[in-house]
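User: structure tokens for this one?
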Amino acid sequence: MITIKKVESKSELRAFIRFNYHLYKGNPYAVPDFLEDMLDTFNRRKNAAFEFCEADLFLAYRDKKIVGRVAAIINHKANKTWQAKNVRFGWIDFIEDIEVLKALLDTVEQWGRERGMKKIVGPLGFTDMDPEGMLIDGFDQLSTMSTIYNFPYYPRLIEQLGYEKEIDWVERKVMVPTADEHQADMQKYFRVAEMSMKRYNLHMRHFKNAREILAEEDGKYVQKCFNVINKAYADLYGYSEMNERQIQQYATTYLQFLDMRLLAIVENEQNEPIAMGVGMGSLSYALQKAHGKLFPFGWWHLAKAIFFKPAPVIDLLLVGVLPEYQNKGVNAPLFAQIIKVAQKMGFVWAETHPQLESNEKSQGQWAHLDCTIHKRRRCYQKEL
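Assistant:
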């Protein structure tokens, strides 16, 4: 018999977070979340998303043993923006047992109905900045710190329960060009970058460290950069605009790990950011070695990967161009800078962030590089 229990205590919350680690312990492709980060994610005081989201977490038990977990979420801002009544399921994990999955999803479905929702969608987090999409292809590829890994049985079982495709994301493995290999038409980025910079009177902006960018304009510059992302992503599936507190939260979380050489910012004549690209040396192996905990020794694996022995992979986290500058070659300066830095730093290949398969502008920007789609993930849906 399967019992579903709402998470109400600190010990249950820790059990909810660590279930993922225990389920995937020893898996060479799964990358565990940091316990400390996830505790903040589900903290209603610390996570700014709770200003416009409501959520409950649930654990599935069989014979007093945890066999699954799921989060039920309503993003009221996204629902208002998209004129929808969607309940989201997120952070879903379960043993290979369709009855466990059914019990978890039935709980979210009922939770959503009680709040007037008409459709269930997921896996999705509170916002687009959280991991989203169930892996449906690429199970033999290393995951990243910002994406979901799941066993192949996940999509098979959820489809047996009548869930259907809502939308897909794809991820690419992009080879870093070298003098001898993977050139493709790399020079086109440099040609287009030079032309677009001259035509629109643009220039690149560089920062030495996180402290410098955070101090720029008393912190307002970081807000401007993230607002580029807000405007660039505004029309993408389910997106809800980041507010000031969220931006501060993400800046605090990620800037401490970021090598400023991998931050590419394009400014206009007024020194306002109009495009941004963010890369980061992969922390996947470091997170695996840390076993999902920063303390007592996880921080060392993280520091080693950042400062002493970086992985050969660069994770491309965010790429955004203001709508009025899109289709004008303004993304080319971003890639031109990151390519040069990646070559100098010795990266072998780059992992793109998940991109909507329907986003033709985003898909087309890789056309002149040696790359291949190596992962695909899906958001499922079901009418309530």
